[in-house]
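W.,

You were right to be curious about this one. When I first looked at the sequence I had no strong expectations either way, so I just let the prediction run and decided to look at it fresh. Below is the sequence, 104 residues in total, followed by the output.
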Amino acid sequence: MMDISLNQYLILSALLFSIGLFGVLSRRNIIVILMCVEIMLNAANLMLVAFSRFVTPADLSGQAVVIFSMVVAAAEISVGLAILIAIYKKRKSIDISNINLLKW
């Protein structure tokens, strides 16, 4: 059986983060942007678990930080979706270019 090295985990994490960053910068739909932010957070979580496994395998501090990060990400998505629903009720659109609430 082949063992997966730390470099392979880091490459996968960088790839996932790049996909998420590209989605955030190129999309106009708020729901897709929120999903891309979640992909970026999951890439960071993967990196934390990989470093925790390879640097200090007996210590579970990396996994504890990842669980805390998942809880914060769930709260972030729930607040983001609540803001999205409020904007949709007012503007009838979820396109980023139509949302100019902070402009005069």
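Here's what jumped out at me. The chain has one domain: 6-98. And, maybe more interesting for your project: The chain has a mean pLDDT of 87.

Coffee later to discuss?

I.
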